[in-house]
User: What shape does this take?
Amino acid sequence: MKNSDQSEEVEMEKTIRLDKETFLSMAKLLNLDEKDSHLEELYTYVEKLFPSFKVAEGMDLAEIEPMLTLVLPKE
Amino acid sequence: MDSKDLCYLSAGELSQLIRRKEVSPVEVVKAHLARIEFLEPTLNSFITLLPEQAMEEARIAEHEILSDQYRSPLHGIPIGLKDLFYVKGVPNTSGSRIFDHFIPNYSSTLALKLREAGALLLGKLNLHQFAYGPTGENPDYGNMHNPWDTKRISGGSSGGSASATASGQCTLAMGTDTGGSIRIPSALCGLAGLKPTYGRLSRFGMTVLSWSQDHPGPMARTVEDCALVMNVVAGYDPHDPSSADRSVPDFTQSLTENIKGLRVGVPKELFEDPLDSEVEHFVRNAIEMLGQLGATIHEISWPMYHESKAISSTILMAEATAYHSQLMRHHGSRLDPKVRLRLEAGLFISAVDYLQGQRARRLYYQQSCNLFKRVDLLAGPTVPITACKIGTEEVRIGNRLLGVIPLLTQHTRPYNLNGFPAITVPCGFSKNGLPVGFQLAGKPFDEETVLRAAFAYEQATEWHQRRPPTEPLSSGRSNSCS
Assistant: This one.
């Protein structure tokens, strides 16, 4: 039987996993050619990276603003 | 002095001879062009060579120096620029055949500053396509080769800058660093390579990879040469929206001050990452040497270090995909397949992911600043392995088989995310004769301390005096990028 930490981890993995069907729908919306054989390779690559795109989700970012630069002209 | 010796003088040494009129810039350029002709079939460091222009500029420099119009310590020094710094009238490919015929009608701020200082441009240097990769493999213009073993990678993305400087094809070069692209090839080729603070050097007129993480900087055979370049290129530029309007010190001034009492932090997390045992041995020795030179060594913890790599990568990928979106859509099939994969993967990063990444980045930046309340420098490895063979996808560390690309960038990315200055200097050679890099990082706009500690270490050791086997070892040149 899994303890609560492990269950949470499994739940997290489930949430951030990109399944093939979702990938293909997204690829279509992004105008990527679904007949392209290269898409299979792209899926393997994106699937592996996808959890890292969400790394900030596990952090406490309350009160933190994005680090974006807005430099207004001096005059 | 024979022409090969001339090619291995540092800018600091060469400038003394030029200033005293003991050596002419014409003689210097001729020697370097001969060396390029000899080594280029093996190393493939350059995309565009400018021999006539360089000779013409050398003649002008000679005339100026003879007329006592000495411009700077870079006057008459032969340099190369990574082929993503625009130079008016000179092709700028960014490492892709798609831009074979692109000739900018203006120059990057850094190219202009170097020219005004009297540096002589020998040519534009090869790079990983669009600076989007750390190995120095390029299917369009051919792979770059490591002068220490030409069957091995130079590292990237500024691979041509590293191989040319390490082999004496030029005295120094400019590179750019978005995830380690100055420091990685410098470490793998045995050079000093400085990524200055974000905003210290202008990005105007450079091909973009990631607006918020691109850092231009010098690559040279000595720390002093990095400081000499910084004196010429640092400073505010109104053309670059991220340029910092801050005073610029003389970076050579404090080089020779001792490092007694300098607090060097060694984050334990840097050694939790996979690390080749030979590399670890040399890096720990280098840290010990700083202690012997008077620095105090402190083991510390860097809480968000491990997460910083994924945050940096997410921001980089989103920005690179945004910048290259038209190119990707219209010329996807003409891109290096691996670069195409990275660019298309960036489409799957949502706006929310990007913004959460930028929020996490602010937290990480604050934590990084807090670290520097306790220490003056951070020390660790630059790259966890030595140069692998061209085409290698995975390497073994202990009993783990690991991807080369994430390994190469694991220790460098954290300083692209916070924008802090970081330098690599050689700190040893593996049993098979390959250089190992030692990384020192400082607080924002404190390049002086970074350079001072690196210089003290360099002067106390002999690693920077070693030269690669100067004659081509093997005809290892390969265009494959498997």
Q: What stands out?
A: Residues 4-57 of chain A form one domain. Residues 1-10 of chain A have pLDDT under 50 and may be disordered.
